[in-house]
Design brief:
The structure holds 2 protein chains of 2 kinds. Chain A is mostly beta strands. Chain A contains no helices and 9 strands. The chains are: A mainly beta, B mainly beta. Chains A and B meet through strand 3 and strand 4 of A and strand 4, strand 5, strand 9 and strand 10 of B.
């Protein structure tokens, strides 16, 4: 699986936007970019995913660089509930591949009131 | 609530013992994944089943085994337990087996403590 690189930790203030970066310089053409987060004492939770174009949903936005070697998860207004470990994961969608998620260390996001 | 149910939530046992963790996927989901999360290793993929068939194995020890039953629930069996097996075990389910882009839904986990 292609690897991703994320900062170990980031800090934000409540109600401010948060930009969580992810580098994936070895991404292949069949890799989708997935983001999950894990709140304390809970299982991981899907946030968003994309292939080439920027994506928006009710939780967040995903901005994907034109060369796809990096992406940014954007939380538009951070709340205390957004404090979690955020994982950026590449998922190969080609035929015959396994669809498991390979988690790295992720970014621990701290949100200050 | 993800719709994935894991039992038991907590389990304390002794070294050398055997335990079974159970997972009920979301209604309609055919795929079940098992993950292990320990403090030093992070989330590690163990095994994936799709509609009763094993699809992929990850870092699963030979002492561990899993299966998915016709009603699609899955069990993870851990035997000859060692202290290092203490961890959170997560089950996740998804609709997909092949060719569908979809998210994984995780349960709340089973916390295993081996004394």
């Amino acid at each position: 699986d292609a690897k991703t690189t994320q900062p170990n930790s980031m800090e934000s203030n409540e109600e401010e936007p948060v930009h969580l970066p992810c580098n994936h310089s070895t991404i292949s053409g069949t890799d989708y970019i997935h983001w999950y987060r894990q709140l304390p004492s809970q299982g991981p939770e899907y946030v968003i995913h994309g292939l080439t174009s920027n994506v928006n949903n009710r939780m967040a936005s995903l901005a994907i660089a034109e060369d796809r070697k990096s992406s940014t998860l954007i939380l538009h207004r951070a709340t205390l509930r957004d404090a979690a470990v955020y994982y950026c994961i590449l998922r190969d969608r080609s035929r015959g591949s396994n669809y498991k998620l390979t988690f790295g260390k992720g970014t621990l996001l701290t949100v200050n009131p | 609530d993800s719709g994935v149910t894991q039992t038991p939530k907590h389990l304390i046992t002794a070294t050398g013992q055997r335990v079974t963790l159970r997972c009920s996927p979301r209604s309609g989901d055919l795929s079940v994944y098992w993950y292990q999360q320990s403090l030093d290793q992070g989330l590690q993929f163990l095994i994936h089943y799709y509609n009763g068939e094993e699809r992929a194995k990850g870092n699963i020890l030979e002492r561990f085994s899993a299966q998915q039953f016709p009603d699609l629930h899955s069990e993870l069996n851990l035997s000859s337990l060692e202290l290092g097996d203490s961890a959170l075990y997560f089950c996740a389910s998804s609709v997909e087996g092949t060719g569908i882009t979809g998210e994984l839904f995780f349960g709340e986990g089973s916390r295993l403590t081996v004394l």
